[in-house]
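Predict both folds.
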Amino acid sequence: MMYTLSLWIFGLLLIDPTGVLGLHHFPENYVMAKRGNSVTLTCNTNFDGPFTWKFAANTVDEAEEIEDFNTIYKQVGKNLIVSDVDSPALGEYSCWSGEERLSSTFLLVEAEEGNNFDSLMKCWAKSYDCTFSCNWAKGLYTAVRLGLGDDCSEGRKSCHWVNSSGQHLNGGFQFELSHSLSPYAEETNMLVLTAEAIINHNILRRTKRFYLRDIIQPESPQIVNCQEMEQELNVTIDPPSTWSSPHSFFSLEHEIQYKLKDDGSPSVLIPKKISMLRVRSRDPLVLSNWSQWTPWKNVTY
């Protein structure tokens, strides 16, 4: 049985600060290591014949064999030990039998402490139903994915990752996630949300724990009618269509802001003669985030 260590590295033609040359998806197989540590890669195959290890970065140039590979790499059976992990050694490693690729894996380095997690990602739920949304802020990251539960926070293969459902208007990533919490039961368990993000060959992994009630933010309510009474204005407001039902159980409180016909300044009181008003809502039981304001509505008599 013979294995050949033939490692190739491609020279860097262009350093792209936007990460365009980096990974735009999560590889099916990858290993994350700390910078400066050693890591073991495995040729995942049942093939018993001779095979060759190869390495390629994400850029193209004439291939040059690494002359000092014995100081960086050591092969033990089907394993390849990479010592002193750093940028030149990051990328895709594959094992080959002739022209047949047997398996491959990416070697990525753990990203150093960067931006605060809360500044990178914001999550909110329109209601207590089984879904919530998250946005990952625009930045240099080229691939992001999220996962719920301990399987994801502990990096298990059984984790069900959710990829971005598209790009956010501001250039970031957006996600729709599902949970199994009952909207009618008292919330005792926190959601465990793990995010992984890639920039070039660096991978960031962060975990955040929170209650669903902490991210509740209703959509804007609906101003149905404004009826003039003797001494006041009666405003009829309906919950947003996305809010949990029945509304007798999932109540909302509303805040009305208006402009006087004479001076146009906002006020917390509601006199009879106003020119415009708008409304926002929140869950009064958990003091959730306020919804966005409705557009200003003209009041006519």
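Second protein follows, with its predicted structure tokens after the sequence.
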Amino acid sequence: MVVYCFLIVTFATKETPLYKIPFPAITICPEVKSVKRLLNFKDLILKQNELNLTDAESKNLQYMTQLCENPIGPLQVRNTILNDTFTNEFFETLDEVKVEPGFFKCSFLGQNIKNCEDAFTPVFTDEGICYSFNILDRGHIFNELVYHYENYHKVDKDTMSWNMERGYLDNSNIMTYPWRALLSGASNGFTVYLLVVVDNENIDFMCKQIQGYKVVLHSPVRMPRLNQEYFRIPLDHAVVASVQPVVITTSQEVKTFDVAKRNCYFPSERKLKYFRTYSQQNCQFECLTNITLDSCGCVSFFMPRENSTKICGLGKYKCIKEAERALMLEELNKFRDSVKVEFVCLPLCTDLSYNIETSHTKWDWKKLVGLMVKSENLDDYETHASSLTVYFRVNHFISSERHELYGLSDFMANFGGLLGLFTGFSILSLMEVIYFLTVRICCNVRLYGRWRGVDN
């Protein structure tokens, strides 16, 4: 039990069924960032060490270094800002050379999904191009001023049936978007098989030292940050993720409290420039974007931005890292110096997150694939497959509730109870006190007046 001034956070008195909350959004990012025959990062690094890069190769090297780990040694050319032409070419290049994750087969709630690729939405994150299942459309996450590249992060489904504060509408169908699970267990979760057939040299350890996939489970209304939290799917492994939802709600009575006292925001109470709804993660992401823009004159490619905002090149790498450190110090100073609450990214009063436990094992997938497809050419390629299963651990969960510690009725009951316990005080005693302090005094004054009149 945690007490915040006049508020208290306790466990709910009854369990909540799973269908009241959405199934987590699943974002998968391949560690292989480019098809080598289209863009060979290793060769570009070797060429730049030999001072033998063409202008086109130098540009591609600048692009890929945005996604790859820092190469050994300095690059020949470090553009500070990608101008408008380069910006379009940057996203076009990433789109052209991307490695398809190969969604071979997937199922949800025990039913096979006919077109597995259609269940995933391509999105731009800090890991480049990733693929999200059960995420909300960009129009429900970002404001209209935010620039998006072509049809990335477009979800052709009605996403108005749920929001963070009210949950699902009462008249929503069971199979509404974002999807929700009805029961717990692996058979009622989501499973995807990732099959990638590439040539032997396609995996580029110069770009990423550890191969496989990065995965993050998050709320459908939240943009994933793969550099902050993730778990891995190694190549040729089967990974299982068991999910426990964490929900905190807040009573309407608490909404009358000052924000500084309840230490949280309702989504409608604070507006953000880039994001349609407030959350602590969105607020911090927007602060990072603003600090980066003010310090560097540009933003990273994955940050929300207007069409006129420049994207930072590799020459701004140090400036971007300093902006991240400045944000951490600024947040620390805000809490330490008790800055006005409107400048602090507080948590949501009603929020949803997911606790995850993962396990994995090596997977002899070729036996399975050999039964499903012709495998006569598998030996000619370096073929890798992995699987991911995500499911809820229990059918019901206990949420946390934030409510007022002492309301008026609670105060009166406790006050009267304590007085009654220690002094024999009761409501009748209170009435007697009021009587002797008001009516009795008035009567005495009147009688005294009559008595004085008789004496005179």
